[in-house]
Design a protein that fits this description.
Blueprint lengths: L2 H10 L5 E4 L7 H11 L5 E4 L12 H5 L17 H15 L6 E2 L2 E2 L2 H15 L10 E4 L3 E7 L6 E2 L12 H9 L8 H14 L4 E4 L2 E7 L1 H13 L6 H8 L4 H14 L4 E2 L12 E2 L1
Helix pairs in contact: 4-5, 5-7
Length: about 280
Amino acid sequence: MIMKNIKKNISNGEGITVEFKKSRGKVTADVYQSICAFLNRNGGQVILGVEDDGAITGIKEDALLRVDNVDRYNDRDDIRTNLIESYDRLMGFVAKHLPDKFYLIGDQRVSLRDKIFREVATNCLIHREFLNPFPAKFVIEKDRVYTENANKPHGHGLIDPTGFTPFPKNPVIARVFKKIGRADELGSGVKNLFTFTKEYSGALPQLVEDDIFRAVIPLTEQVNRRKKIINFCKTPRSTSEIMTHLGLKHREHFRSKILQPLLDEGILNLTIPDIPKSPKQKYYS
């Protein structure tokens, strides 16, 4: 929702499809009650940080204005189907929007992206508390991916992989997913998630066990690399120069997964646009 629509809804006041909630420090229980009520009707909007009279108190006005400027994907998929198809659609959504870093285990190339988000997607599906009406969320932002799903907690707070004890939430569903190759052995997924996320983005994930289970996968390196390319290409640079600057060696991966998306988004431009494959081609921001 763009900023002017948020302000318009606030100025119109609360109604059958709009509710205001203070929620200054955290998302309170009455927020979830409103969400459940909307789900049982025809949907609606819960606007946080707003008093019943429309006064914006939860966050400063200038902070609210920055919502428009966040560079995130404007794409959505409302998944309401069986768990196996849901898994395929989640992984397809990830493949559509996130790059896959070149990575070898021994002499075999593996997909870091699939290793990471296979665990994230299966957690949303097979460890969810299905009696809770809270809708599961899978959100891709410019510098992170986060998920939220209803949970029957076996402990509270951040999960430490070194002291983590696995606890099956829906063991029958988990066994089915393991049999069809969509899930790992119980407990190994969390360890792999921490290992592969570190390789993918240079930072560790956060997993929070509570009534709502939250997972945050940082994309720090992807964002920093784009900034590095943009700054470096203020002077036109060749493919080899950019790869050397980034310390990359796999040319085809660089061209398809890093360079081409920047060209498609208009972030980089060609110095010889009429001959895209010219050996003298350079790129500038």
